[in-house]
Amino acid sequence: MQGIIEVKNLTKRYGDQAVVDDISFTVESQEIFGFLGPNGAGKTTSLEMIEGLRKPDGGEIFIKGQTVWPNPNKVKNLIGVQLQSTSFYEELTVKETLALFASLYGKKLSAGELEDLLAIVGLTEKENAHTRSLSGGQQQRLAIVTTLVNEPDVIFLDEPSTGLDPQSRRNIWDVVKELQRRGKTVILTTHYMEEAEYLCDRVAIIDQGKIIALDTPQKLIDGLGSEAKVSFTSEAPIKRELLSQVEAATVKELSGNNGKQLIYSSDPAQTITSLLALAKQDNVEIKGLHVSSATLEDVFLELTGKELRD
Ligand SMILES: Nc1ncnc2c1ncn2[C@@H]1O[C@H](COP(=O)(O)OP(=O)(O)OP(=O)(O)O)[C@@H](O)[C@H]1O
């Protein structure tokens, strides 16, 4: 079966560096598909080539079977695009802003359509508010709803919740889920692994222009083969020979991170018991012992040896 988006061998170079390096993937209809990766990984560049905003140096992109390049105008009506930063005319109200965006597509919104759009993003009460008076989260929700005025099948969101407080971020997540309920396919970029885990049906983990893993968040985490991670610090490092004896564990040492050490574990109770016993034997005091579930962050760490955030 053909996906709603097909990307084949997509490549973008700046100078002699491939910032998007021969990536291929398929997005299924009504999926929430995430690009997760650190700053500079190539997420925005990939997205903008698919949106028809940046010309690829190689590869092919199809949206609903229609090739995007060399004539991206042909897919314009199939997609809605929210860029990483959107600025509005401050003197316009929310309602006027939506009318303006609709007019760019030669559309006039009926009162019912406007009401429906505002309800999706929880801005009904802000209909007559000037855009300058909106909070960061409200502005971001307005930016998302502007992508819907042409009734696209696919919505692109570039870091929709970056810089927002936790509550506003949650509100954005609700909006994204609502888009999916309404039959939209959503492609988003993020460097928040919680966001990718919560929202995305599938995630492409991208690093240095390459897709290094692609699956459902749960399958990616299951692939680690670890139920939990145990992290701790110790004033003096525990000897490697001793660490290697910790039970039910694979040992990871994180360099340059305040000596924090990580142990992935298939049985945290067994791991901690043996860790404490071995540390005692070595006269080393374990501090800040912390047990948590494995996350996409750990998948990234496992695959690249570095942390997702700088
Ligand atoms: N117009 C350009 N000219 C030269 N280099 C560029 C250009 N645009 C992007 N790059 C480089 O390409 C790489 C990928 O950038 P991109 O913006 O796609 O990353 P990103 O994963 O979206 O990062 P972020 O999370 O910071 O938005 C970076 O090293 C960036 O400096």
TrEMBL record:
Residues 5-233 form the ABC transporter domain. GO terms for cellular component: plasma membrane. Belongs to the ABC transporter superfamily. The keyword Hydrolase does not apply. The keyword Translocase applies. Keywords: ATP-binding, Cell membrane, Membrane, Nucleotide-binding, Translocase, Transport. GO terms for molecular function: ATP binding; ATP hydrolysis activity. Pfam families: ABC_tran. It is found in: Cell membrane. It comes from Dethiobacter alkaliphilus AHT 1. It comes from the Bacteria. This is ABC transporter related protein.
